[in-house]
Amino acid sequence: MQKLNLNFNKSLIIIFTKIQFIRTIMTIMFLLFFVACEEQCTTPQDQPNNGTCCKVCTNGKPCGDTCISNSYECHVCSGCACNSSYATLNSIPYIQTNNMFNIAGLEYQSGVEHGFIDQNGYFNYESGKELVVKFIGSNILELNSSNNYNIVNLLQNNNRVNILRLMLTLDIDNYLYNGISIESDISENIIINFNLSVQDFAIDENVLFIVQKYGRTNKLVPISEVDDFIYFMRNQEI
What we know:
The protein is 38% helix and 19% strand. It has helices at 2-40, 84-89, 151-154, 157-170, 198-203, 205-214, 223-234; strands at residues 55-57, 61-63, 66-68, 81-83, 95-99, 103-104, 107-110, 113-116, 122-126, 131-135, 138-143, 180-181.
């Protein structure tokens, strides 16, 4: 019996020793990996590890496969994120954010980016790609790459009044001085002809259908509201 206990104790000691040895090896490997990463990551990651950007950092700096604040320290050895200067230099399209000057709810498309302008007027666009903005299924704005997306200035004179008049009629809160916000789920199988004269546009059956179904009143707002809105937007800080 005593001999059996001795053999059992020896087995436990051997097992414990092996476990300690494995733990020591794993600790050493982890420390070596950590030190290697620290050494590798002391230089800012200005370009992706494989030459292809999966995410371009227009604000902050690249760290691995994402972007972090410039005040943070990156501890990721490498990744596919890059900064905007590298993307521009190598003609790599990337996603940026811009503001449509407080006109929310409009549908947009820019390269792979598609969606609706949010309640603060912001949207994403792909650099170097055309930006298309739609209103009730109709293209009202088609722009090449630009940083100036003031919809009031860019709408053509011959249809600007009609477009803004319908937008203001559909404005959710009926208050033009905080911008225009339109329900993004307006979806009808009709085409609005914004190129009509102001008089014909006001009596167009498709326009009247949208106004009566979604508008805050059963008729278009007066043109004076359009003038007030344009004046207000042009005097905002751009």
